[in-house]
From TrEMBL:
This is Sulfate permease, SulP family. Residues 1-67 form the STAS domain. Pfam families: STAS. InterPro entries: STAS_dom (IPR002645), STAS_dom_sf (IPR036513).
Length: 67
């Protein structure tokens, strides 16, 4: 999570997973942490370009999409 800048003046964040793959529940938890932290700082965080396998993992184990 050190690679993400959590600044209060950021209003919209897009996390693009076009060239990524989520392999396990730990990866889903990390994505949730990042999205939740942006949201707590007032940013609208959007995750995009999910392939079908990633979407299934996030739907099954993620919590950020339900907030």
């Amino acid at each position: 999570m050190q690679g993400f800048g959590f600044k209060e003046d950021v209003k919209d964040v897009i996390i693009d997973l076009t060239h990524s793959h989520i392999w396990d529940v730990t990866s889903v938890a990390m994505l949730d942490s990042v999205v939740n932290k942006f949201q707590k700082n007032g940013a609208n965080a959007t995750v995009r370009s999910l392939n079908e396998a990633i979407s299934i993992m996030i739907d099954k184990y993620g919590v950020h999409s339900r907030i």
